[in-house]
Amino acid sequence: MATFRILVTPGDGIGPEVMEEALKVLGRVQQRFGHEFVYDEETIGGAAIDRYGVALRPETIAKAKASDAVLFGAVGGPKWDDPRASVRPEDAILGMRKQLGLFANLRPVRVAPELIGESTLKPEVLQGVDMVVIRELTGGLYFGKPKRRWENAEGRQAVDTLRYSEREVARVCHVAFQLARQRRKKVTSVDKANVLRTGQLWREVATEVGKQYPDVELEHILVDACAMYLVRRPASFDVIVTENMFGDILTDEAAMLAGSMGMMPSASLGRRRKDGTGIGLYEPIHGSAPDIAGQGKANPLAMILSAAMMLRLSLGLDREAKAVEDAVDAVIREGLRTPDIAGPGAKVVDTRTMGSAVAERI
């Protein structure tokens, strides 16, 4: 029996609700496949600010580093929504990624045939959509210095610095090409090389890395064009790789292809072992959704699918991951819907019912 240590950080808003369902599903995986998942739980985000005065404690980082993987719920909410505050809930996710050396965020986008009708796009546009967007996590505007606000005679001022190094660009591009080799062998590198010096560096390095993968097609697209193509011809993409802020924006746009952010998992990865596994942080991209917290309306499928990514990418449990993904597909085929993906006449269920349905089908 294999034993794995997992750090659980439910966070704020709907984070605890969807986390409960993911753990329910993982409990079923333990029973069926004979593994042991040992959990540590830590308070993060706004809840940690209220309790400890900081969004992320050093003790939490220490537990994360001692774990095989981190399951992350969501952070934030109106209570802590002051952009000028010295401590913010988002410090938890940014700090965790940085301290664990996680530099590549993988966000798969696959449109279930049964949900095509729930999208605002024409069905023919969504046929065959199956892509992964890889967002660089450690550079760019989120971390570049100087970063500050001030006031002078001309009024309020602010600056953020967009900075990238060759090393940062190269390592995330390698992840993209290696993943593309396992898929349809096409990488789309997204930049703003016609305006930004960092975009020019990005394009140069992506091209150099691409030469090491002659079996993979490489195309370069400007970010504004990519935003258009995501709604015009999304099925043409296989693996998209881009910098931090562009990736943040484009993946939220891509989430609408699947009908809801409630269907979108993600994995943040760092250096990998020879067997392809390694520490990772797994979270749904939907955020804390405080407007529906505690109402049983949250869709747990993105959190459950994030747990499936954890099984595969950090724990090396491919068969178990596939079982979870197949269970999610099954409940969708059977017509179960949370409010965010429910069309007219759909069988609407609450968060717990959806989680239990997935667990029962493993």
TrEMBL record:
Transmembrane segments: none
Entry binding sites for NAD(+): 77-90, 287-299
Enzyme Commission number(s): 1.1.1.85
Chief localization: cytoplasm
Catalytic activity reported: (2R,3S)-3-isopropylmalate + NAD(+) = 4-methyl-2-oxopentanoate + CO2 + NADH
Cofactor stoichiometry and binding remark: Binds 1 Mg(2+) or Mn(2+) ion per subunit.
Gene3D superfamilies with a match to the protein in the record: Isopropylmalate Dehydrogenase
GO biological process: L-leucine biosynthetic process
Pfam families in the record: Iso_dh
Entry-linked InterPro entries: IsoCit/isopropylmalate_DH_CS (IPR019818), IsoPropMal-DH-like_dom (IPR024084), Isopropylmalate_DH (IPR004429)
Domain annotation Isopropylmalate dehydrogenase-like: ranges: 5-358
Sites where the protein binds Mg(2+): 224, 248, 252
GO molecular function terms listed in the Swiss-Prot or TrEMBL record: 3-isopropylmalate dehydrogenase activity; magnesium ion binding; NAD binding
SMART domains assigned to the protein according to its UniProt record, in alphabetical order: Iso_dh (SM01329)
Pathway: Amino-acid biosynthesis; L-leucine biosynthesis; L-leucine from 3-methyl-2-oxobutanoate: step 3/4
Keyword annotations: Amino-acid biosynthesis, Branched-chain amino acid biosynthesis, Cytoplasm, Leucine biosynthesis, Magnesium, Manganese, Metal-binding, NAD, Oxidoreductase
Cofactors: Mg(2+); Mn(2+)
Positions bearing the site annotation: Important for catalysis: 142, 192
Localization (cell): Cytoplasm
Protein's job: Catalyzes the oxidation of 3-carboxy-2-hydroxy-4-methylpentanoate (3-isopropylmalate) to 3-carboxy-4-methyl-2-oxopentanoate. The product decarboxylates to 4-methyl-2 oxopentanoate.
Annotated HAMAP family: LeuB_type1
Protein family per UniProt: Belongs to the isocitrate and isopropylmalate dehydrogenases family. LeuB type 1 subfamily.
Subunit structure: Homodimer.
Protein name as catalogued: 3-isopropylmalate dehydrogenase
